[in-house]
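re: ur question from yesterday

yeah so i grabbed the chain u mentioned. its 357 aa long if i counted rite. heres the sequnce exactly as i have it in my notes:
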Amino acid sequence: MGGKPKALIAMSGGVDSSVAALLPQRMGYDCVGATMKLFENEDIGERSDRPCCSLADASDAARVAAALSMPHYVFDFTEAFRVDVIDRFASSYEAGATPSPCIDCNTYLKFGRLFERARTMGFDKIVTGHYARICPGANGRYTLERAADLQKDQTYFLYTMTQELLAHTLFPLGPLHKRETRAIAAEAGFANAEKRESQDICFVASGDYAGFIEAYRGRAFKPGNFVDTSGRALGRHGGIERYTIGQRKGLGIALGRPVFVKEIRPDANEVVLAEEAEVFASSIEIQGVNLIAAPRPFPERAQIMIRYNARLVWAAVAPLPGGGLRAVFDEAVRAPAKGQAAVLYDGGRVIGGGRIG
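ran it thru and got these structure tokens back, copy pasting raw so excuse formatting
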């Protein structure tokens, strides 16, 4: 590869990662493509017309790499994906929380196993198709900034990144809008230029999360009671794994008025139902906080996103013992769910984030 800097490209077979492979070549990097083999939906009987991590996806990535005269490898990370993503996904629902598997995949797989593999193999950078920007900051530190295309911005999923990761990562799509990405792919002659995007949780191709967990665990859920906020039984539920905070549809109970999931109590095997106004919260606690490049002293106010693509809401923030944060919102937010990420922003810059406790 000569004296050029070397980049390992995470290639999923989609248009974003394909263009993310092309652009570093144009920047002068010697590039190698890598597809992570993570999961086969057929392993537990999943069937869909949009499988994840399939042989077809790996073939699409290999074809793009070949068109770019780029070596291409497939790394088998199925066991790590099972432990760090699928097990966490199932365990979260079983504990009455709402998982964030895309964040876990970024943290433990792309910027965990794949990043470690890249460094071991002597690559200078790892490259992904995320819509986000990395900018040099003060005192040699890097900042993570929102993408130019705010509709595609993925910084919410990247709050766990560290200074070391930011220093050795490229996000070539950060300055682009999605239409520009597709145009570049079409101009390059990529067959996947118009390939549709994956939706929902990638390894649950059917979209039936509860059915997936039952099949994955090999056991049926335990029924229990729907209750109101006073503890009065309202009816029976089909297992706490079927519900998430704020949910209205698919409850399987008719009370003559709209009700929503306010709380899930795994110890009692109860799902608390309430009027919609009662699922709003004026404050949250955030656990496992990672600060990317927060100024010192810590800011007393920040904008917070409590789920992907949610509206940013201003809040007063204060540290808690043990490294957590408490956020008190200027206006109540709807259905913050335990286990989901809360990401703090200062304008377009990511301060950091953690999980809602």
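noticed a couple things. The first strand starts at residue 6 and ends at 10. also Helices lie at 15-26, 55-67, 78-94, 101-120, 163-167, 178-187, 209-217.
anyway ttyl
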